[in-house]
Inverse folding.
């Protein structure tokens, strides 16, 4: 199943092709399609001129990260002497990013996925400002770079004082037409659906998924597996049951973000409060949490720091509505039964999915109706 957004991909390519090249910083929450976009870009550029690095997978120590990156690189490089300290290993990594070139001596491209994970190196001696040093080195390099992260708020703070070479790009959520295009490969008879039914399916899936690419693809695959007429609500129910794919995906995103924040237990409590009622003000949350407004404000700022909650007009709510639904279902002493999952998903869908418009009446229907009734249908009478 595809998830192409041609306009955004063109913008990404234009930044790399500029002279001098700009450095796109692609921001988007869990499931927004950042990694998929990098792989698409890498396929288009070709393996000989691009290196994809999943920082989250291999950021252990500076020394081992340097070894992992350089060993897997397609670019030839004369390795310097073995790094003696964590600081020397990191400096050697920056030198590698600056020195290497493509097969014909041209600038090469590095795709650094989840680049903010390098922040873990700041616990090593001499590496208090890893991300700041990295941005300075990349900005001065003739090579080309694309950076991504799921932590939007942190990225904006980091880039506040960065040079103009960095260009922030937020991954746009899917539109209804994007959803329709993404769902098409999952259904053999998709083309035979009535246009109104296909459009309604696209709007329904968009409403249920909040336009997140990973959720759209998961729903499409689940609907195809269920067979019959596409039913996004039943598909979402199956995905959020105890063994469902989205249940495990949401659990991963939830725990990952909480472990990157402070105040683990209190943050879970606030998310549980918002899962049952939102939006709420600071005062309302502090009363339910039974903590002072001052400490509650700190907790909320830590949740905003990892993009779990969003504040609009001083009222807080979940950033991801599907994750909120998961918290309602699964953050409890016992796992929910299938019937309870179905009830909660129906409740969630009832306030998000638009009602399908009934088919317009045929011009000859109700031929015995009065002229006033026919006028209410919008039918023009011609004498």
């Amino acid at each position: 199943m595809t998830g192409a957004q041609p306009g955004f991909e063109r913008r990404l390519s234009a930044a790399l092709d500029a002279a001098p090249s700009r450095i796109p910083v692609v921001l988007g929450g869990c499931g927004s399609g950042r990694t998929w976009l990098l792989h698409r870009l890498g396929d288009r550029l070709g393996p000989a001129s691009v290196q994809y690095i999943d920082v989250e997978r291999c950021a252990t120590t500076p020394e081992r990260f340097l070894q992992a990156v350089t060993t897997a690189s397609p670019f030839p490089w004369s390795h310097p002497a073995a790094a003696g300290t964590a600081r020397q290993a990191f400096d050697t990594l920056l030198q590698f990013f600056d020195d290497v070139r493509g097969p014909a001596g041209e600038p090469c491209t590095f795709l650094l996925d989840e680049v903010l994970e390098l922040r873990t190196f700041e616990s090593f001696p001499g590496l208090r400002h890893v991300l700041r040093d990295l941005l300075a080195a990349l900005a001065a390099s003739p090579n080309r770079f694309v950076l991504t992260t799921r932590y939007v708020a942190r990225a904006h703070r980091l880039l506040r004082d960065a040079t103009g070479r960095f260009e922030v790009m937020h991954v746009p959520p899917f539109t209804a037409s994007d959803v329709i295009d993404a769902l098409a490969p999952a259904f053999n008879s998709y083309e035979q659906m009535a246009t109104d039914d296909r459009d309604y399916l696209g709007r329904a899936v968009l409403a249920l998924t909040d336009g997140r690419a990973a959720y759209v693809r998961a729903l499409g695959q689940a609907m195809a597996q269920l067979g019959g007429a596409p039913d996004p609500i039943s598909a979402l129910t199956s995905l959020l049951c105890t063994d469902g794919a989205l249940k495990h995906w949401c659990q991963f995103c939830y725990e990952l973000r909480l472990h990157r924040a402070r105040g683990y237990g209190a943050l879970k409590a606030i998310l549980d409060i918002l899962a049952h009622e939102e939006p709420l003000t600071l005062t309302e949350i502090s009363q339910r949490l039974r903590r002072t407004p001052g400490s509650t404000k700190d907790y909320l700022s830590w949740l905003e720091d990892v993009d779990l909650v969003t504040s609009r007009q001083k009222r807080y709510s979940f950033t991801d509505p599907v994750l909120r639904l998961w918290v309602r279902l699964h953050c409890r002493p016992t796992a929910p039964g299938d019937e309870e999952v179905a009830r909660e998903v129906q409740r969630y869908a009832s306030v998000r999915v638009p009602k399908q418009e009934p088919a317009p009446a045929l011009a000859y229907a109700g031929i015995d109706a009065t002229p006033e009734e026919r006028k209410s249908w919008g039918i023009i009478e011609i004498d």
Q: What stands out?
A: Residues 186 and 224 are 6 Å apart (CA to CA). The chain has 18 helices and eight strands. The first strand starts at residue 23 and ends at 27. The beta strands are 23-27, 50-54, 109-113, 144-149, 166-170, 280-281, 309-312, 315-318.
